Amino acid sequence: MNKKISLGIAIGLMALAAAATFIITYNFSLNVFNSKVRNVSERESIYAKLSEMDSYVRANFFNEINEDKLTNNIMNGYVAGLDDRFAKYYSADEYAKQTQKESGVTIGFGFEWDKEESGYIKVTSVMKDSAAEKAGIAAGDVITAVNNTDVIAYENGYDEAVSLFNCEEGTKIKLHIKRINDEGISEFFSVDVTAEKSEIISVTGRLLDENIAYVKLTTFNEKTPEQFKNVVNRLIGDGASSLIFDLRDNLGGTTTSLEGTLDVLLGDGDIVTAYYKDSSEIIVHTTEAEEINMPMAVIVNGNTASCSELFAFALRDEAHAQIVGTVTYGKGVMQKTHKLAGGAAVKITVATLQTRNSGDYNGIGIKPDFEVALPAEVDLSTISEEQQLTDDTQLQKAMEVIYTIQ
């Protein structure tokens, strides 16, 4: 049975609802306003404190202030305060170098290096057809002096010596090198090398047998997709009917290059989704090319990170690839770089990333389908192709997996 409500009661209820809506809206707006005022006040307090300190220092500091160094350290301090381990402030010079690196083109001598325990410079890898390779430099060599000055004799030692490698095209340097020969005897020689502009080779490949192709990816830059396409097509043309991708020690790179690389392997589909602070979800990577339908395996380790992890996840999701190796780094977040006035830039984390079946793997990593450790005595940076087939347990397992699913 329907009950009728008088006009007066109806008007009263409407007024009550309007009043409630007003109160809720007012309180929400007041809270937003107060939070903004509080943030503005806090910022003004920080700026005032910084200005006060700057005035005091400039009036009393007994030394000259290096303005560029001061600015860079202030900016670095701000970024450090975000507690974002992937955030970074780039000075104008650093950002120019980073942009060039991401482009896949480099100016240098064509070798990578690291600090040896003794404080000297150890050559970890040499690019094919580079100035270093032409000069006879090889992975494992130790650079003891640069431009006739002992590395340790530089005022800032190793750091100052390697800073000489960041130079303009055409710069010449002399390197004094120590090499341990096959008999375990130290050999010493010197070479002159000239800095060249060259394309970074991030993809290499070869046939392991008549039908298994091995493709090594060292990074993801703007040149990677084209190199990847050329290598994969060449190996398939040579008779490959299965693919092993080695992403060990690949720390990632640009996500646009990841998309272009996956395009070579996967059919149409949404591959990677970004989840932002405001709870929005955006598909950031899709593939459009025809799928390469053949058995695949991916080798990973603890230094497989970022784009490399997404590559492995995507192939497992979309191409049923098997993952071999050890648990990966676990970098499931995306950074965005914003260019600042004067050519500097800041990079901050803006979203988490997931593939269709990866879930949130940030800080966790990928657990391989076949967990296999590499023997401690095997050094991937110096191992030969022949040694790989006999000593690389992870590659051997990947080959075994491919033979099983062919």
CATH-derived architecture of the largest domain: Alpha-Beta Complex
Q: Averaging pLDDT over every residue, what do you get?
A: 88
Helix content estimate = 25-40%
N-to-C SSE string, H for helix and E for strand = HHEHEEEHEEHEEEEEHEHEEEHEEEEHH
Largest sheet: 6 strands, antiparallel
Which range does the strand content fall in?
25-35%
Categorize the overall geometry: globular
Number of domain modules: 2
CATH-defined fold name of the largest domain: 2-enoyl-CoA Hydratase, Chain A, domain 1
* Rounded Rg: 28 Å
CATH level 1 name of the largest domain: Alpha Beta
* Number of DSSP E strands: 19
- CATH fourth-tier homologous superfamily of the largest domain: 2-enoyl-CoA Hydratase, Chain A, domain 1
**Main structural class:** alpha+beta
The total of helices stands at 10
Textual characterization of the structure:
This protein has 406 residues and is an alpha+beta fold. It folds into two domains: 107-199, PDZ domain (Pdz3 Domain); 203-405, 2-enoyl-CoA Hydratase, Chain A, domain 1 (Alpha-Beta Complex), CATH 3.90.226. Helices cover 36% and strands 26% of the residues. It contains ten helices and 19 strands. The chain has helices at residues 7-60, 67-80, 92-103, 131-134, 157-163, 224-237, 255-262, 307-319, 385-391, 393-405; strands spanning 88-90, 105-108, 111-115, 121-126, 142-146, 149-150, 172-180, 186-194, 196-199, 203-207, 212-217, 242-246, 269-276, 281-287, 296-300, 322-325, 333-339, 345-355, 370-371. Strands 3, 4, 5, 6, 7 and 8 form a six-stranded antiparallel β-sheet that branches. Strands 10-11-12-15-16-19 form a six-stranded mixed β-sheet, with helices on both faces. Strands 1, 13, 14, 17 and 18 form a five-stranded antiparallel β-sheet that branches. The mean pLDDT is 88.
